[in-house]
Amino acid sequence: MAGKSLLKKIQTVQMEKISKYFQGVAANRNIDLTIRGGEILGLLGENGAGKTTLMNILYGLYRPDGGRILIDGVEATFRSPRDAIRAGIGMVHQHFMLVQNHTVVENIVLGDGEAPFLFPQRAVEQKLLKFQELYGLKVPPYARVWQLSAGEQQRVEIVKALMQGADLLILDEPTSVLTPLESRDLFSILRRMAGEGHGVVIISHKLEEILDLCHRVVVLRKGEVVGEADTKGVTKEELARMMVGRSVVFSFDWKPAPKGEVVLQVEGITVRSDRGTVAVKNVDLSVHRREIVGIAGVAGNGQRELVEAITGLRKVESGRIRILGKDITNQSARVIHAEGVAHIPEERIRFGTVPNLLIYENAVLKRHHFAPFSDVLFLDYSEIKSHAVDLVEQFTVAAPSIRVPMKHLSGGNIQKLIVGREVSAGPALLVASHPTYGLDVGATEYIRKQLLKRREEGEAVLLVSEDLEEILELSDRIAVMFEGHIVGILNRQEATIEQIGLLMGGVRS
Ligand SMILES: Nc1ncnc2c1ncn2[C@@H]1O[C@H](COP(=O)(O)OP(=O)(O)O)[C@@H](O)[C@H]1O
Ligand SMILES: [Mg+2]
What is the pTM of this model? Predict the structure, then answer.
């Protein structure tokens, strides 16, 4: 067993000038971070801020492109998690890595590289009892993992890390899978661990739990450290501001316009996620003509499931959805599209286009079976091609010809074609999911202008984006989602970045 004495603990871990690039994009830039034994440190930041990357580096999963790690003043090089574990660092990932068919004990033994082939299960059991006594970490030794709740599985991961000798324990968004009661139990375990001299790092975007649990908080934004504070001396408001940063820029070409009739009416819908958990909880929402409603929130708070329910890609469990007064609840995506709902999907390459089809074929996807592109029996190719040429011109798609496969276009040009295709059908409602994600500045501006144009032309737009700047620039009203609820709807005029940040962090006024 690699377990160390329970007395000797890491005093400090220093990460110095850590940088990490993915395909040239900085996920971490010159990050300095100190973690101390006996301290619970919160790592706070929006999605994509670089929190997981930074901790994966400390856990030996990624090699940094720059910077170094010192453990109690001695430089450490981790080629794999095994090296990090040997140095006393453990990590519980967002998605557990247990073998479902094995028992708790088997999973724990499996993780121990130095365990003899025939490991005495009794010895493990005794250790388990010790952790239960010390930290309140209760796990059923001979249950199979699939029989355990998320909270129990998480405890198994923690026990496993401790058995491997973890002095410093990193937890990536540990409460995202827990009930409030389980979260409370987890926090009390973590407090007891810190009390015994363990260092704890908890990644989270939830302001209240960071303030409740942590001694100190470090805030990341866009790969950099933007703030650090003792939680005793900082308010939720200050943290919210650090997390979302930027001053409010209502610069764009947005002009006030009186909103028209209701186009989308969502009434108390409940929707489940792929995992079967309730992802959208009794949500009400309306979008009017001449209005853009932006949905803000950290990813994974139900936005995707809400959009999928509206566009017919996911079943609604209860509640109603109406388009221009007509009930479309649980109709097929095709019927809903025909009722006037267009969709710019989140994963545009996978769901927005057929990469191997030619541009002109992609230009009429979903509409090829309607006039004017088709009569009862035949597709009208000259009509389709002239429509494609129009789209390419009108939406400034850079393409050598409409006869090249879609996959040869850049991301920005693919998106322009999708937007053009969806908009040209003249939908009453355009649902845009992360429409500028990953696009360059030029394409981004172009797409945003197109959304504003829809609004000016009197149509309704539902915009889902993690880019707060985009939401603020474009939206008439901003709805914030947190844990499946719409926790607040703000009018553009009265919205402040701080309010939105608080709502995104789960703090209701
Ligand atoms: N394995 C990877 N390959 C490419 N890009 C990645 C990878 N992991 C993370 N990124 C990118 O790095 C940035 C930071 O991501 P991440 O560390 O997961 O942020 P956070 O945990 O704060 O949400 C994001 O832009 C993300 O898309
Ligand atoms: Mg993460």
Answer: 0.69
